[in-house]
Amino acid sequence: MTVTHDLSILSLISQASVLVQLVMALLASLSLVSWYWIFRKAFQIRQARAQTDEFERDFWSGGDLNTLYESAGRHQSEGMERIFEAGYREFTKLRGKGHDHGATLDGARRAMRATYQREIDDLEAHLAFLASVGSVSPYIGLLGTVWGIMNSFRGLSSVGAATLAQVAPGIAEALVATAIGLFAAIPAVVAYNRFAHDIDRLGIRFESFMEEFSNILQRNLR
Description:
mainly alpha, rod-shaped, cell cycle, cell division, cell inner membrane, cell membrane, ExbB/TolQ_transport
């Protein structure tokens, strides 16, 4: 009589040992959370890029700085606009108090640098989680695989002659853990690399703007 085994994914998961099932559940949870942050970060970075493009068009259109500053204060500014707002606020405050030109310009630069760091920190938030999922998930899956294969061979110790039909289901159950680990890791790694690149590009644009804006403020002090 031939014994048949159901090798569907759901069946393999339900028949796996408790530890392997816990590993699969952990990996599935990590995958769901990482996908949540992938979508959130993709939207946040796309929005930051669009707002930066819009502000650069407004800033370099040749309008009055006071008008641009008042416009920024009428809504929730972000990114480059917030950097401009912080720098120009500090510049006008120090110049109104009669500080010398060097101190006024240094104060504006410090305000812009502090705001720049906060904006970059906000964009980079939760990227470390994606990096951790990408690096750790395959090893967690491998743990489940090794444990499942050990259980499979331990069960064969009481069998006189092992056949492929007896070994295959246990190994297949174990390999599902590795597959889920890779399913969690690959999107997280790809998203992390992409987001890190996009944030670096935005950071370069922010830094270039701070230098150019500092030169404009310096000319206004003359």
